[in-house]
Amino acid sequence: MPCDIEAKPRLLWLQGVTCNGNTHSFLNLPHLDELINKFEIISHPILESTISFEEITKCKAECDILIFEGAYDPLLKRNDVLMSELLHHYALGAQHIIALGSCASFGGIFKASAPERNSGLMFNETKEQGPLVSSKAKLINLSGCPAHPEWLGYTLEMILHERAIKKDELQRPRELYSNLAHHGCTRNEYFEWKVDAKDFGLKEGCLFYGQGCRGPMTHSSCNKILWNEVSSKTRVGTPCFGCTEPDFPRTNLFSTKTNMSIPQDVPLGVEKRNYLTMAGIAKSFHIERLEGKLIDDEKTD
Ligand code: SF4
Fold first, then answer.
1. Domains of the chain
2. What is the rounded average pLDDT of the residues 118-135?
3. In ligand 1, which atom is closest to the CA atom of 206?
4. Kind of pairing, strands 65-69 and 96-100?
5. How far apart are CA 74 and CA 82, in angstroms?
6. Residue 235 to residue 128: CA distance in whole angstroms
7. What is the model's pLDDT at position 260?
8. Which of 190, 206, 270, 275 to mutate to test the pocket of ligand 1 (most atoms within 8 A of CB)?
9. pLDDT in tens, 184-232
10. Model confidence at 243, in pLDDT bands (50, 70, 90)?
């Protein structure tokens, strides 16, 4: 049954080691006002809150939904209070915990900078390790650097309407992370016929062969649920960095790793030998329509 409007679910947003990227991403949600009016925001780093952060640090509040942004660092303090104490206190009472972004989910960028200390809330990359491993049942990972604002919007609406969220083995909602970033990319025909993008930012070509695109091995719905309702990285000619996966960040994000000109990683679930056979055949075709400019600037009416 939907929650009573008089008793809005109480939402608390805490931050670990973070760049604020997920906070800023969420502020770009097109229907932000409508969504946040359905909750009591008891504390948020930017949005109007009903309880001061000082009260939060004294553990004087209660929340129904805890959102944690950033990597977990056991030594991090806010207002002279260890964040780990706050996290454990509020996680205990919350019915739902959302690890927002790749740092909170798997450690992300900040784990890479301090691997001896930082991790996600229940994963260190794919290894179950972190302060909330025992809260697995109520924890939802929304990985991404940053997480798409619509992914958080979807999750909050599902919670609000008491709908079950089916999760994958990394605790991510299947509805959002079963697709690959490759699905829905407008460059799929170039991928099929192995036509490379000649540079970044062009309308033509696929970014898999030279620019390091991870779309065919990255679980995300970036080309299904578009950013700002209109676009995605690959649509503007930038490779997918695979930022929703536990091994993010990798090195050399803008180039494709190869061994003797053969891509080191091939699309998920495809045997490398089969991929190479298929790619060789596809490459032997020359399709003029795909090799030229989509829009010929020289052509006059
Ligand atoms: S640019 Fe990336 S996501 Fe798009 S078709 Fe090529 S490999 Fe797939």
1. 10-175 (3.40.50.700), 179-290 (4.10.480.10)
2. 97
3. 6
4. parallel
5. 7
6. 35
7. 85
8. 206
9. 999 999 999 999 999 999 999 999 999 999 999 999 999 999 999 999 9
10. very high
Integer Cα distance of 38 and 3 in angstroms: 9
- CB 194 near ligand 1, within 6 Å: no
Q: What gap in Å lies between CA 10 and CA 288, rounded to an integer? A: 58
Mutate which of 190, 208, 232, 268 for ligand 1? The one with the most ligand atoms within 8 Å of its CB, which is 208
Beta bridge partners of 71: 17
Place of tokens 């609406």: 157
Residue 233, both tokens: 């990285």
Q: How far apart are the C-alpha atoms of 230 and 264, rounded to whole Å?
A: 32
**How many Å apart are CA 66 and CA 94, to the nearest integer?**
6
Share of the chain above pLDDT 70, in %: 97
Whole-angstrom distance, CA of residue 97 vs CA of residue 67:
6
Q: Tell me which of 41 and 1 has the higher pLDDT.
A: 41
What's the mean pLDDT when you consider all of the chain? 95
Q: Which residues pair with 219 in a beta bridge?
A: 180
Dihedral sign (CA 143, 148, 150, 152): positive
Q: What separation, in Å, do the N-terminal and C-terminal C-alpha atoms of the chain show?
A: 59
Pairing of strands 40-43, 139-142: unpaired
**Which one-letter amino acid corresponds to residue 281?**
I
pLDDT higher than threshold 80 for residue 4: no
Ligand 1 near 86 CB (within 6 A):
no
Contacts of 216 (CB under 8 A, 6+ apart): 180, 182, 191, 208, 266, 267, 268
Task: Give the pLDDT band (50/70/90) at residue 2.
Answer: low
| Rounded (10°) CA dihedral 94, 125, 237, 211 | 180
